[in-house]
Every structure is written in C-alpha cells, then in structure tokens.
Amino acid sequence: MTDIGTNLASIRQRIAAAEARYGRPAGSVHLLAVSKTWPASRLREAFAAGQRSFGESYIQEAKAKMAALDGLEVEWHFIGPIQSNKTRDIAALCQWVHSVDRFKIARRLHEQRPAHLPPLQVCLQVNISGEASKGGISPAAMDTVRALADAVAGLSRLRLRGLMAIPAPAEAFDAQRTAFRRLRALQEMLIAAGHSLDTLSMGMSNDLEAAIAEGATIVRVGRAVFGERRMKDEG
Ligand SMILES: *Cc1c(COP(=O)(O)O)cnc(C)c1O
Fold first, then answer.
1. Residue 96: beta bridge partners?
2. Ligand 1 site-directed mutation target among 220, 225, 232, most atoms within 8 Å of CB
3. Does any domain span residue 232?
4. pLDDT tens digit sequence for 23-62
C-alpha cells in the first residue's frame, strides 16, 4: 500500500471512531481530501485507494489536475477564497463550492453555472473565530448570515447545502469543540428560519474529531492524507 493509501485508511478509522464515540451514524461523515499544492500523480494514488472527492483552493492549479484526471469519476470541491474573475471556471468545473461569503460571488456563480449541469452545491463560509485574516461572513452579524442564506436560496442554479468554517487553530479539544458548536448553532438558526440544510463542512487534520463531535458532515483533510504541504518556492 502507498503512503497515501495508508494515510487514508487511518483517517477513515479516525472518522469511524469519532462517529461511534459521539453518537453519529456510521458513514455520516464524508472525507474530502484537500489536494491543494499536490500534483495530479498524488491524487491518482488517492483515487486508487478509493478516494473520490478532492478539495482545491486555487482554480488555475485545479484546472491542470482536472485535465490530468479527466475520465476518472472525481468530485471537485472548491474551498479557497473566490475572486470575481475566477467564478466562471469554478461554476463550470466544480460540483461544490464551500467558500461563498458574499452575494456578488453567489450571483456570478449562479449566472455562470452551465445549463446542462445540475445546480452547483454551495456552503456559506462563516468566519467563526472572527480572525481578520480569514474570509467568511462575520457571525457577529447573524442577520447577515441569514440575509445571505435567503438571497442564495433564491438562486436557482445554486443549491444551498450548509455552512463552512475554518476556526482559529486551538490545541485543546474543548476549545476546538466550542468553535464548531457555534457553526452548528448558526446552522440550526437557519434551519429554524426555514432553510433545508444538511451540510456542516468543518474539521481538518488536527481537529476532525472535535468537528465530528459537533455535527460535521464533511471534514476537509489535507496534511493527514498527503503529508506536509510543499512551500511554493520548493517548486
Ligand atoms: C488547506 C485547507 C484544509 C486542509 O487543512 P489540513 O490542516 O492540511 O488538513 C481544509 N480546509 C481549507 C479551507 C483549507 O484551505
């Protein structure tokens, strides 16, 4: 077995153990392999080990890998910051976008989603820890989250699935859980307001157990699958 195969097996075990421990149904947490910075050959290894969904943060980089993996049944999730001039490619090439945080971007994705494809599945990104450096809607403004959800739900070429967050790194398990619990509370608020949402995209290599404890349905795992990311200048 390759390293990536071994890594995937061990993450699947971590997920299964957390599901069992926190009373989540077996198989209710989906593993998204975050493949940003890694070449297509590594994605092929993961594919050979049964991985089918991949998360990318830079659409130019993703396009090259999509071309290299053409013909394989892969589901592409866009998880990075979105600039207006990138929405056309994202709308045409991805099945999911986790990082929608303003209406202007949502409307462009809706307008540019090709008619022959099913609606693009989206999550709204919430800046749950309030870090200035991070993208996402500020949850301090609950009304903003609600207003954006209402507006996005009205776009027929998008299907609003839920919320995504990247909390500030925390060592302690309880601190990790606290941040994820806040995202879940926001999701519950939106559901109470009439939205039908089934996705909480939260949890990464270091905190996926805490996220699963708080209801994650997609964990986005990079380093624990592929290893430490290479710096850009290492080529
Ligand atoms: C890079 C990245 C991840 C993966 O983080 P790891 O710590 O490598 O597991 C998850 N989500 C987003 C949005 C990312 O940019």
1. 77, 121
2. 220
3. no
4. 999 999 999 999 999 999 999 999 999 999 999 999 999 9
